[in-house]
Structures are given as structure tokens and as C-alpha cells.
Amino acid sequence: MNPVNIHYLNIFLGSGAILLQIFSVFALFILFLGPKKNAYLDFLDKHYLTLGFVISLSASLFSMVYSEIVGFLPCYLCWYQRIFMFSLPFIFGAAIWHKDRKIVKYTLPLIAVGFIVSIYQNFFYYFGEGSALPCDASGVSCYQQLVSEFGGYISIPMLSLTSFLALAAVVLAAHFYKKED
Q1: Whole-angstrom distance, CA of residue 17 vs CA of residue 154
Q2: What pLDDT is stored for residue 181 in this prediction?
Q3: Which entry of 34, 128, 156, 166 is 20 to 30 Å from 119 by CA?
Q4: What is the pLDDT of residues 132-165, one digit of tens each?
Q5: d(CA 128, CA 121)
Q6: HSE-up of 177 (CA within 13 Å, CB side)?
Q7: Is-contact 137 143, C-beta < 8 A?
Q8: Who contacts 180 (Cβ-Cβ below 8 Å, separation ≥6)?
Q9: Distance CA 85, CA 72 (A)
Q10: Which are the contacts of 25, defined by CB distance < 8 A and separation ≥ 6?
């Protein structure tokens, strides 16, 4: 893949990540601090299996695009996050197939652990010093800043964090949102 196409892929994914962050924070804000009845949360509650499937499948596929097509090999922290992300499309897909909405107890632990690893990686990516990085740039590393868009805000660790945040927002909204009749 040539550098121009990689740049456009990064811009596309970065723009999508920023929008996903806005929608996720908005959903969590409304869920915990907003009105009890809300059309946005109604939508998330009604379509959370499909949204979870699309988000997790997209995150898994684009992770594979970066590693297998573009050639950005994942560091070990990225691999840990992949472990928790790659099973989610299958869980959401099976839940859609069987019309089973009660998968929170299966998906939330995977999302939570992936989210924690992602926060850890992002903290060191954006705020860590070069010598204290858990995944240094001497080998395979996200710290080589292979993706750096929108002033350095969007990176591979930020894309991962956004995916886990969006999945957490969707699953939490579906689980905790109670429609009042």
C-alpha cells in the first residue's frame, strides 16, 4: 500500500474514531446523568447487538489491515488487546443469530480488560518517557508513531481505546437503560 493511501486510511479511521468518541461519551453522559427516557438511548438499546457487532468487526478487520496489508506489525500490548477484541464479533454475531440480548456477562469482561490494557498503553504512549515505555521502539512497537493524524491525537493505541470505549458505551447503555412506560 502506498503512503498516500495509508494517509487516507488513517484520516478515514481517525475521523470515524473522533465521531465514535463523541457518540460514546454522549451516550454515557445521558445514561448516567441525563433524563430517564431518551430517544438516543432507545436506539442504542434496540440495536446494541448490531452496533456491537459492527464496531468489533470493524476494529478487528482494520487491525488486520494495518498488520497484514499495510505491514505495521503489532506490539505485544496490541496483541493483548486483539485477544479481547477478536472474539467479540463472534459473540455478537451468535447473539444476533439466536436473538439473545443477554450477552452482557460474556462481553463486558472482555471489553473491560481490553479497555484497561488500552488505557495503560495510551497513557505510556502519550505521557510516558522514552526509557519507561513498556513497549519500546527497538523492536515491533506502536511507539514508532506509524499512525499520527490530527496533530498526533489519533494513533493506533487511540483507535483501540476508541473501539473499546464505544463497545463499553453500547453494552452499558443496553444493560443499564431502563425504559419507563
Answers
A1: 8
A2: 46
A3: 34
A4: 556 655 555 666 667 777 887 888 889 999 999 9
A5: 10
A6: 26
A7: yes
A8: 36, 37
A9: 18
A10: 165, 169
